[in-house]
Structures are given as C-alpha cells and as structure tokens.
Amino acid sequence: MADKVIINASPLIFLSRSKHIGLLQAFADEVWIPEPVAMEILHRGQQDITARTIERTEWLLTRSVPHLPDTVIEWRLGAGESSVLALASEHPGTEAIIDDLAGRKCAASLDIPVRGTLGIILIAKQRGLIPKARPVIEELMSSGLYLSKKIVNEALRRVKE
Question: pTM for this one?
Fold first, then answer.
C-alpha cells in the first residue's frame, strides 16, 4: 500500500455516488485532493454527496498545488487533471487517479504512475476486498461512469468473471 495517492474529480464523484469511496483506503493511507479539484466539488454545495464525502472523510486530504510545470501546461488539460499531475510531479512515485484519457497519457509521458476508477475496482477484486467486480462496475456506470461493453468485458476477463 502506498503512503498517498492523488485523485481527480471524476473518480471521487463516481466512487462517492456508488458508495464505494472506502475502496480508496486499500491503496493508500492518505488520499490527496488538489485544491482546484476540491473547490470544484465543494462548489456543488452540501446537497452533493461528493462534497459531503470530502468534508466528512478524514483520510481525504485537500492539498495546495505547486506551480504547474510547463510539461503539464503544454497538454492543455483541465484544471483538475493539471493539478493532480503537478502535485504528483512534486512527489515522485505517487500514483495519480485520473479517468480522463489525455490526463492519463500526460501522466505516462511524465512517468507518473496512473490508475483510473475501473482500475481501483479490479485491484479491489484481486485483493479480495469485494467478492465480485461486475456489480460494482454496474453501480459505477449507473452513477455516470461511461465504459464501453468491450472495456467492461476485458476488465471482467482480467479478474476471471
């Protein structure tokens, strides 16, 4: 298990909505949320489940973001992805949790370990934290996560479902 991971908005949103936010604790002692990501979510107000989750979960920690490196800026990502990658750049070896394809490609180009929401579920299944991945994936998709049938089938094949 890592000391910390740095997470973007969409994985936080999908894991909160589907009530699987606790799976993040299997990956790190601390889950860092860059300030721009936290502000984006908190602006939704107290009625939003993810905003409430950020405010009430002690191991979800908001962190300020250093200056954005040019190597991140040139990718023209959103504020959330950029801040996750800038913070990860400051802490080598720290995993970034990002669903956005461009953000994931940027992370790879910067040698930042990266995983998406689906990857969290697959690892949770492999570690025995959940009995089956399929129902969790279906809950995530009901919460708004888009995954093609091909991706879902490949993922389930990897965990022998």
Answer: 0.93
